[in-house]
Protein backbone atom coordinates (compact mmCIF):
# COMPACT_ATOMS: atom_id res chain seq x y z
CA UNK A 1 0.00 0.00 0.00
CA UNK A 2 1.35 3.51 0.70
CA UNK A 3 3.88 4.94 3.16
CA UNK A 4 3.33 4.70 6.90
CA UNK A 5 2.92 7.88 8.96
CA UNK A 6 6.53 8.08 10.15
CA UNK A 7 7.85 7.51 6.60
CA UNK A 8 5.59 10.26 5.30
CA UNK A 9 6.77 12.73 7.93
CA UNK A 10 10.34 12.09 6.86
CA UNK A 11 9.57 12.31 3.13
CA UNK A 12 7.18 15.29 2.98
CA UNK A 13 7.89 19.00 3.14
CA UNK A 14 6.35 20.09 6.46
CA UNK A 15 4.22 23.21 6.31
CA UNK A 16 4.39 25.72 9.14
CA UNK A 17 0.61 25.82 9.32
CA UNK A 18 -2.37 23.47 9.55
CA UNK A 19 -4.33 23.75 6.33
CA UNK A 20 -7.40 22.16 4.76
CA UNK A 21 -9.42 23.07 1.69
CA UNK A 22 -13.13 23.66 1.15
CA UNK A 23 -14.71 23.40 -2.32
CA UNK A 24 -16.40 26.27 -4.15
CA UNK A 25 -19.24 24.86 -6.28
CA UNK A 26 -21.16 26.02 -9.34
CA UNK A 27 -24.94 25.71 -9.77
CA UNK A 28 -24.42 22.19 -11.15
CA UNK A 29 -22.30 21.29 -8.08
CA UNK A 30 -19.04 21.11 -10.04
CA UNK A 31 -15.97 22.27 -8.10
CA UNK A 32 -14.40 25.39 -9.68
CA UNK A 33 -12.11 26.55 -6.85
CA UNK A 34 -11.03 25.78 -3.30
CA UNK A 35 -10.92 28.05 -0.28
CA UNK A 36 -7.84 27.43 1.86
CA UNK A 37 -8.65 27.03 5.56
CA UNK A 38 -5.58 27.58 7.71
CA UNK A 39 -4.83 28.13 11.34
CA UNK A 40 -2.79 31.28 11.50
CA UNK A 41 -4.97 34.31 12.04
CA UNK A 42 -2.01 36.64 12.45
CA UNK A 43 -1.18 36.56 8.75
CA UNK A 44 2.25 35.00 9.27
CA UNK A 45 1.34 32.25 6.83
CA UNK A 46 0.31 34.38 3.87
CA UNK A 47 3.03 36.95 4.51
CA UNK A 48 5.59 34.15 4.72
CA UNK A 49 4.66 32.88 1.27
CA UNK A 50 6.98 35.36 -0.40
CA UNK A 51 9.98 33.56 1.09
CA UNK A 52 8.70 30.01 0.85
CA UNK A 53 8.77 28.42 -2.59
CA UNK A 54 8.41 24.90 -1.16
CA UNK A 55 5.08 25.76 0.52
CA UNK A 56 3.86 27.51 -2.63
CA UNK A 57 4.74 24.31 -4.50
CA UNK A 58 2.65 22.25 -2.06
CA UNK A 59 -0.30 24.64 -2.47
CA UNK A 60 -0.19 24.44 -6.25
CA UNK A 61 0.70 20.74 -6.39
CA UNK A 62 -1.75 19.28 -3.87
CA UNK A 63 -4.21 21.76 -2.42
CA UNK A 64 -5.31 23.20 -5.77
CA UNK A 65 -5.40 19.99 -7.82
CA UNK A 66 -8.44 17.92 -8.71
CA UNK A 67 -9.23 14.94 -10.95
CA UNK A 68 -12.01 15.44 -13.47
CA UNK A 69 -12.91 12.65 -15.90
CA UNK A 70 -9.59 10.95 -15.16
CA UNK A 71 -7.51 14.09 -15.83
CA UNK A 72 -5.69 16.04 -13.10
CA UNK A 73 -6.11 19.81 -13.33
CA UNK A 74 -5.32 22.77 -11.12
CA UNK A 75 -8.09 25.03 -9.79
CA UNK A 76 -7.75 28.51 -8.29
CA UNK A 77 -7.50 28.82 -4.49
CA UNK A 78 -9.18 31.55 -2.44
CA UNK A 79 -6.45 32.87 -0.14
CA UNK A 80 -7.58 34.95 2.86
CA UNK A 81 -5.29 37.96 3.08
CA UNK A 82 -4.61 40.56 5.77
CA UNK A 83 -4.35 44.32 5.30
CA UNK A 84 -0.60 44.22 5.92
CA UNK A 85 -0.17 41.52 3.27
CA UNK A 86 -2.03 43.65 0.72
CA UNK A 87 -0.27 46.88 1.63
CA UNK A 88 3.18 45.29 1.69
CA UNK A 89 4.77 46.34 -1.58
CA UNK A 90 6.92 43.23 -1.35
CA UNK A 91 3.90 41.09 -2.35
CA UNK A 92 5.12 37.65 -3.49
CA UNK A 93 4.82 36.92 -7.18
CA UNK A 94 1.77 34.67 -6.79
CA UNK A 95 0.59 33.08 -10.06
CA UNK A 96 -2.49 35.20 -10.82
CA UNK A 97 -4.48 32.35 -12.39
CA UNK A 98 -3.96 30.16 -9.30
CA UNK A 99 -5.13 32.48 -6.51
CA UNK A 100 -8.15 34.62 -5.67
CA UNK A 101 -7.14 37.15 -2.98
CA UNK A 102 -9.92 37.27 -0.38
CA UNK A 103 -10.34 40.47 1.65
CA UNK A 104 -11.85 40.00 5.11
CA UNK A 105 -14.71 41.98 6.61
CA UNK A 106 -12.63 43.26 9.51
CA UNK A 107 -10.19 44.94 7.09
CA UNK A 108 -9.48 48.59 7.79
CA UNK A 109 -10.73 49.99 4.49
CA UNK A 110 -8.59 53.10 4.11
CA UNK A 111 -8.03 55.14 0.91
CA UNK A 112 -4.57 53.51 0.78
CA UNK A 113 -6.09 50.00 0.87
CA UNK A 114 -8.67 50.89 -1.80
CA UNK A 115 -5.91 52.25 -4.08
CA UNK A 116 -3.87 49.08 -3.53
CA UNK A 117 -6.82 46.79 -4.29
CA UNK A 118 -7.53 48.77 -7.49
CA UNK A 119 -3.89 48.38 -8.50
CA UNK A 120 -3.98 44.60 -7.88
CA UNK A 121 -7.15 44.31 -10.00
CA UNK A 122 -5.40 46.24 -12.80
CA UNK A 123 -2.47 43.81 -12.55
CA UNK A 124 -4.88 40.93 -13.25
CA UNK A 125 -5.45 39.54 -9.74
CA UNK A 126 -8.89 38.13 -8.99
CA UNK A 127 -10.31 39.59 -5.77
CA UNK A 128 -13.08 38.47 -3.43
CA UNK A 129 -14.72 40.20 -0.46
CA UNK A 130 -15.92 38.13 2.52
CA UNK A 131 -18.07 39.02 5.56
CA UNK A 132 -20.03 41.66 3.61
CA UNK A 133 -22.46 43.61 5.79
CA UNK A 134 -24.89 45.74 3.71
CA UNK A 135 -25.50 48.03 6.73
CA UNK A 136 -21.84 49.09 6.89
CA UNK A 137 -21.00 51.83 4.33
CA UNK A 138 -17.24 51.09 4.57
CA UNK A 139 -17.65 48.26 2.01
CA UNK A 140 -19.23 50.42 -0.72
CA UNK A 141 -15.95 51.55 -2.43
CA UNK A 142 -14.85 47.91 -2.81
CA UNK A 143 -17.98 46.73 -4.65
CA UNK A 144 -16.81 48.36 -7.89
CA UNK A 145 -13.38 46.71 -7.63
CA UNK A 146 -13.72 43.11 -6.38
CA UNK A 147 -14.87 40.29 -8.65
CA UNK A 148 -16.52 37.93 -6.15
CA UNK A 149 -18.78 38.87 -3.22
CA UNK A 150 -19.35 36.25 -0.51
CA UNK A 151 -22.66 36.47 1.30
CA UNK A 152 -23.01 34.53 4.56
CA UNK A 153 -26.59 33.30 4.20
CA UNK A 154 -26.81 32.24 7.87
CA UNK A 155 -25.80 35.69 9.09
CA UNK A 156 -27.91 37.65 6.61
CA UNK A 157 -30.95 35.33 6.72
CA UNK A 158 -32.33 33.79 3.52
CA UNK A 159 -35.50 35.95 3.59
CA UNK A 160 -33.44 39.16 3.66
CA UNK A 161 -31.29 38.26 0.66
CA UNK A 162 -33.59 38.92 -2.39
CA UNK A 163 -33.87 42.70 -1.75
CA UNK A 164 -30.10 42.82 -1.13
CA UNK A 165 -29.45 41.12 -4.47
CA UNK A 166 -31.61 43.79 -6.14
CA UNK A 167 -29.35 46.49 -4.66
CA UNK A 168 -26.21 44.66 -5.78
CA UNK A 169 -27.40 44.30 -9.39
CA UNK A 170 -25.73 47.54 -10.43
CA UNK A 171 -22.29 46.04 -9.69
CA UNK A 172 -20.52 43.52 -11.92
CA UNK A 173 -20.15 40.91 -9.18
CA UNK A 174 -20.06 37.15 -9.11
CA UNK A 175 -22.16 36.25 -6.05
CA UNK A 176 -21.08 33.42 -3.77
CA UNK A 177 -23.57 31.96 -1.26
CA UNK A 178 -21.51 31.03 1.80
CA UNK A 179 -22.49 28.70 4.71
CA UNK A 180 -25.05 26.76 2.64
CA UNK A 181 -25.77 23.93 5.06
CA UNK A 182 -28.68 21.96 3.55
CA UNK A 183 -29.97 20.93 0.12
CA UNK A 184 -33.07 23.06 0.75
CA UNK A 185 -30.88 26.15 1.33
CA UNK A 186 -28.93 25.29 -1.83
CA UNK A 187 -32.19 25.16 -3.84
CA UNK A 188 -33.36 28.51 -2.47
CA UNK A 189 -30.02 30.16 -3.30
CA UNK A 190 -30.18 28.60 -6.76
CA UNK A 191 -33.59 30.22 -7.33
CA UNK A 192 -32.17 33.58 -6.21
CA UNK A 193 -29.51 33.36 -8.92
CA UNK A 194 -26.24 32.84 -7.03
CA UNK A 195 -23.44 31.65 -9.30
CA UNK A 196 -21.16 30.08 -6.64
CA UNK A 197 -21.75 28.11 -3.43
CA UNK A 198 -19.81 27.07 -0.33
CA UNK A 199 -20.86 25.09 2.72
CA UNK A 200 -21.57 21.55 3.87
CA UNK A 201 -24.87 21.04 2.03
CA UNK A 202 -23.40 18.00 0.25
CA UNK A 203 -22.73 16.31 3.59
CA UNK A 204 -26.40 16.02 4.56
CA UNK A 205 -28.49 13.09 3.25
CA UNK A 206 -31.89 13.73 1.73
CA UNK A 207 -33.33 10.47 3.00
CA UNK A 208 -35.88 8.80 0.70
CA UNK A 209 -38.14 6.61 2.85
CA UNK A 210 -38.11 2.90 2.07
CA UNK A 211 -35.25 3.26 -0.42
CA UNK A 212 -33.20 0.12 -1.17
CA UNK A 213 -29.69 -0.19 -2.55
CA UNK A 214 -29.83 -0.98 -6.29
CA UNK A 215 -27.67 -1.50 -9.39
CA UNK A 216 -24.04 -2.62 -9.17
CA UNK A 217 -24.07 -1.54 -5.51
CA UNK A 218 -26.10 -4.74 -4.83
CA UNK A 219 -23.34 -6.87 -6.39
CA UNK A 220 -20.75 -5.02 -4.32
CA UNK A 221 -22.70 -5.74 -1.13
CA UNK A 222 -22.99 -9.41 -2.12
CA UNK A 223 -19.19 -9.51 -2.55
CA UNK A 224 -18.74 -7.82 0.85
CA UNK A 225 -21.06 -10.38 2.46
CA UNK A 226 -19.07 -13.22 0.90
CA UNK A 227 -15.82 -11.63 2.10
CA UNK A 228 -17.11 -11.89 5.68
CA UNK A 229 -17.71 -15.67 5.44
CA UNK A 230 -14.92 -17.70 7.12
CA UNK A 231 -14.93 -20.32 4.33
CA UNK A 232 -15.03 -17.83 1.42
CA UNK A 233 -12.54 -18.59 -1.37
CA UNK A 234 -11.02 -16.47 -4.11
CA UNK A 235 -13.18 -18.38 -6.60
CA UNK A 236 -16.45 -17.93 -4.66
CA UNK A 237 -15.83 -14.18 -4.45
CA UNK A 238 -14.95 -13.95 -8.13
CA UNK A 239 -18.13 -15.84 -9.11
CA UNK A 240 -20.27 -13.14 -7.49
CA UNK A 241 -18.23 -10.35 -9.07
CA UNK A 242 -18.64 -11.85 -12.53
CA UNK A 243 -22.38 -11.10 -12.34
CA UNK A 244 -21.21 -7.64 -13.35
CA UNK A 245 -18.23 -8.09 -15.72
CA UNK A 246 -17.85 -4.34 -16.30
CA UNK A 247 -17.55 -3.78 -12.55
CA UNK A 248 -14.96 -6.58 -12.25
CA UNK A 249 -12.94 -4.97 -15.05
CA UNK A 250 -13.09 -1.57 -13.34
CA UNK A 251 -11.97 -3.02 -9.99
CA UNK A 252 -8.99 -4.63 -11.72
CA UNK A 253 -8.14 -1.29 -13.35
CA UNK A 254 -7.90 0.31 -9.90
CA UNK A 255 -5.94 -2.63 -8.48
CA UNK A 256 -3.37 -2.22 -11.24
CA UNK A 257 -3.23 1.59 -10.90
CA UNK A 258 -0.33 3.54 -9.45
CA UNK A 259 -2.30 3.96 -6.21
CA UNK A 260 -1.39 0.40 -5.25
CA UNK A 261 2.25 0.32 -6.47
CA UNK A 262 2.13 -3.23 -7.82
CA UNK A 263 5.17 -4.78 -9.49
CA UNK A 264 3.15 -6.99 -11.87
CA UNK A 265 -0.21 -6.81 -13.64
CA UNK A 266 -3.11 -8.67 -12.02
CA UNK A 267 -5.45 -10.29 -14.54
CA UNK A 268 -8.33 -11.68 -12.45
CA UNK A 269 -10.05 -11.04 -9.16
CA UNK A 270 -9.15 -14.53 -7.91
CA UNK A 271 -5.50 -13.81 -8.77
CA UNK A 272 -5.68 -10.49 -6.88
CA UNK A 273 -7.17 -12.15 -3.77
CA UNK A 274 -4.56 -14.92 -3.80
CA UNK A 275 -1.71 -12.47 -4.24
CA UNK A 276 -2.80 -9.62 -1.98
CA UNK A 277 -5.38 -11.00 0.44
CA UNK A 278 -9.01 -10.46 1.28
CA UNK A 279 -8.48 -7.19 3.20
CA UNK A 280 -7.19 -5.43 0.10
CA UNK A 281 -10.06 -6.75 -2.06
CA UNK A 282 -12.43 -5.45 0.61
CA UNK A 283 -10.80 -2.03 0.21
CA UNK A 284 -11.40 -1.94 -3.54
CA UNK A 285 -14.97 -3.20 -3.29
CA UNK A 286 -15.65 -0.42 -0.79
CA UNK A 287 -14.04 2.14 -3.10
CA UNK A 288 -16.57 1.26 -5.78
CA UNK A 289 -19.42 1.25 -3.26
CA UNK A 290 -18.42 4.88 -2.62
CA UNK A 291 -18.34 5.88 -6.30
CA UNK A 292 -20.86 8.63 -7.06
CA UNK A 293 -23.78 7.87 -9.34
CA UNK A 294 -24.52 10.25 -12.20
CA UNK A 295 -26.81 12.48 -10.11
CA UNK A 296 -24.17 13.00 -7.38
CA UNK A 297 -21.08 15.23 -7.71
CA UNK A 298 -17.60 13.67 -7.85
CA UNK A 299 -16.59 15.83 -4.90
CA UNK A 300 -18.59 13.56 -2.60
CA UNK A 301 -16.56 10.48 -3.62
CA UNK A 302 -13.34 12.51 -3.44
CA UNK A 303 -14.15 13.55 0.12
CA UNK A 304 -15.11 9.99 1.13
CA UNK A 305 -11.79 8.66 -0.21
CA UNK A 306 -9.77 11.42 1.48
CA UNK A 307 -11.55 10.91 4.79
CA UNK A 308 -11.15 7.12 4.68
CA UNK A 309 -7.43 7.30 3.97
CA UNK A 310 -6.90 9.97 6.63
CA UNK A 311 -8.66 7.83 9.28
CA UNK A 312 -6.41 4.92 8.31
CA UNK A 313 -3.23 7.01 8.53
CA UNK A 314 -4.21 8.50 11.89
CA UNK A 315 -4.85 4.95 13.16
CA UNK A 316 -1.36 3.87 11.96
CA UNK A 317 0.30 6.92 13.51
CA UNK A 318 -1.46 6.36 16.85
CA UNK A 319 -0.71 2.62 16.87
CA UNK A 320 -4.39 1.58 16.74
CA UNK A 321 -5.39 -1.98 15.81
CA UNK A 322 -6.67 -2.75 12.30
CA UNK A 323 -6.12 0.55 10.45
CA UNK A 324 -8.06 -0.94 7.49
CA UNK A 325 -11.23 -0.85 9.63
CA UNK A 326 -10.67 2.85 10.35
CA UNK A 327 -10.36 3.32 6.57
CA UNK A 328 -13.69 1.56 6.04
CA UNK A 329 -15.46 3.69 8.66
CA UNK A 330 -14.06 6.93 7.21
CA UNK A 331 -14.94 5.89 3.67
CA UNK A 332 -18.51 4.86 4.50
CA UNK A 333 -19.23 7.87 6.74
CA UNK A 334 -20.98 9.67 3.87
CA UNK A 335 -22.51 6.67 2.15
CA UNK A 336 -25.89 7.83 3.53
CA UNK A 337 -25.49 11.07 1.52
CA UNK A 338 -24.38 9.21 -1.60
CA UNK A 339 -27.38 6.86 -1.50
CA UNK A 340 -29.96 9.27 0.03
CA UNK A 341 -30.72 6.90 2.90
CA UNK A 342 -30.71 7.24 6.68
CA UNK A 343 -27.44 5.77 7.99
CA UNK A 344 -29.24 3.34 10.35
CA UNK A 345 -31.43 1.98 7.51
CA UNK A 346 -28.45 1.75 5.18
CA UNK A 347 -26.33 -0.19 7.66
CA UNK A 348 -29.02 -2.88 7.93
CA UNK A 349 -28.06 -3.73 4.32
CA UNK A 350 -24.27 -3.40 4.70
CA UNK A 351 -22.31 -6.31 6.28
CA UNK A 352 -20.09 -4.64 8.89
CA UNK A 353 -19.12 -5.55 12.44
CA UNK A 354 -21.23 -3.88 15.13
CA UNK A 355 -18.56 -1.53 16.56
CA UNK A 356 -18.02 -0.08 13.07
CA UNK A 357 -21.76 0.44 12.61
CA UNK A 358 -21.95 2.13 16.02
CA UNK A 359 -19.06 4.43 15.04
CA UNK A 360 -20.90 5.46 11.87
CA UNK A 361 -24.14 6.23 13.70
CA UNK A 362 -22.84 7.61 17.01
CA UNK A 363 -19.20 8.62 16.24
CA UNK A 364 -18.14 6.57 19.31
CA UNK A 365 -15.34 4.10 20.12
CA UNK A 366 -11.87 4.11 18.53
CA UNK A 367 -13.31 4.17 15.00
CA UNK A 368 -15.72 7.00 15.79
CA UNK A 369 -13.06 9.03 17.59
CA UNK A 370 -10.67 9.05 14.61
CA UNK A 371 -13.55 9.72 12.22
CA UNK A 372 -14.35 12.83 14.28
CA UNK A 373 -10.68 13.90 14.10
CA UNK A 374 -10.72 13.65 10.29
CA UNK A 375 -13.99 15.62 10.16
CA UNK A 376 -12.60 18.35 12.43
CA UNK A 377 -9.54 18.65 10.23
CA UNK A 378 -11.38 18.86 6.92
CA UNK A 379 -13.65 21.61 8.33
CA UNK A 380 -10.67 23.61 9.58
CA UNK A 381 -11.73 23.15 13.24
CA UNK A 382 -8.11 22.65 14.25
CA UNK A 383 -8.64 23.53 17.92
CA UNK A 384 -10.73 20.36 18.30
CA UNK A 385 -7.88 18.05 17.28
CA UNK A 386 -6.60 15.51 19.82
CA UNK A 387 -3.22 16.08 21.46
CA UNK A 388 -2.38 12.40 20.83
CA UNK A 389 -0.36 13.47 17.75
CA UNK A 390 1.91 16.41 17.04
CA UNK A 391 0.06 18.88 14.84
CA UNK A 392 2.25 18.54 11.71
CA UNK A 393 1.27 14.85 11.49
CA UNK A 394 -2.33 15.86 10.82
CA UNK A 395 -1.43 18.14 7.92
CA UNK A 396 0.88 15.58 6.31
CA UNK A 397 -1.78 12.86 6.71
CA UNK A 398 -4.43 15.13 5.16
CA UNK A 399 -2.18 16.16 2.27
CA UNK A 400 -1.17 12.56 1.60
CA UNK A 401 -4.87 11.58 1.66
CA UNK A 402 -5.70 14.27 -0.92
CA UNK A 403 -2.99 12.93 -3.23
CA UNK A 404 -4.05 9.33 -2.66
CA UNK A 405 -7.70 10.09 -3.41
CA UNK A 406 -6.58 11.80 -6.64
CA UNK A 407 -4.77 8.66 -7.77
CA UNK A 408 -7.65 6.34 -6.92
CA UNK A 409 -10.29 8.62 -8.45
CA UNK A 410 -8.22 8.93 -11.58
CA UNK A 411 -8.04 5.14 -11.89
CA UNK A 412 -11.77 4.80 -11.18
CA UNK A 413 -12.76 7.50 -13.67
CA UNK A 414 -10.36 6.26 -16.29
CA UNK A 415 -11.96 2.82 -16.15
Automatic annotation (TrEMBL):
Domain of life the protein comes from: Bacteria
Full protein name: EAL domain-containing protein
InterPro entries the UniProt entry points to: dGMP_Pdiesterase_EAL/HD-GYP, EAL_dom, EAL_sf, HDOD, RNase_Y/CdgJ
PANTHER family: CYCLIC DI-GMP PHOSPHODIESTERASE CDGJ (PTHR33525:SF4), PTHR33525
Record Pfam families: EAL, HDOD
Organism: Marinobacterium maritimum
Domain HDOD positions: 213-398
Amino acid sequence: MASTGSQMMAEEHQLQVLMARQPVYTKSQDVVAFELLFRDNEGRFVEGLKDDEATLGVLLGTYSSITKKGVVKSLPCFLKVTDSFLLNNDLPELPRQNFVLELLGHSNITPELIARVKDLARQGYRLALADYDPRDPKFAPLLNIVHVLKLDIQLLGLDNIPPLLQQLRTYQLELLADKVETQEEFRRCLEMGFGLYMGYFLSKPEAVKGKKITGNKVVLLQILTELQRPNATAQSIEQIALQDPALTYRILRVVNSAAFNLKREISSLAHAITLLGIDQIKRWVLLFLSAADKDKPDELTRNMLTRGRMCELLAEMMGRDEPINHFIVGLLSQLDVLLDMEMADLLEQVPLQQDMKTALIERSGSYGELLRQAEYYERGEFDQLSRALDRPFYEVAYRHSLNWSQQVLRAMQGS
